[in-house]
Design a protein that fits this description.
Blueprint: H1 3-62
């Protein structure tokens, strides 16, 4: 008699364990992809900063910069 409920609990625990394993794998993938996005954002931000500096120098040469 005790094998029935105990077996049922073990079955549910195994299913939960499998789902947790899948979630853990999904989280590893999400973290990896997020890291790639952060790296790309940093690279783009650096490029935009350099471009801003170049535009500023051009404005100064052409006399278009506002007096500060």
């Amino acid at each position: 008699m005790t094998d029935g409920p105990e077996s049922l609990v073990l079955t549910y625990l195994r299913r939960i364990d499998e789902k947790v394993d899948r979630l853990a794998e999904d989280m590893r993938e999400v973290k990896s992809r997020l890291g790639i996005l952060e790296s790309q954002y940093a690279s783009l931000s650096n490029r935009l900063d350099r471009l801003d500096e170049r535009v500023g120098r051009l404005e100064n040469r052409l006399g278009l910069a506002e007096a500060t």
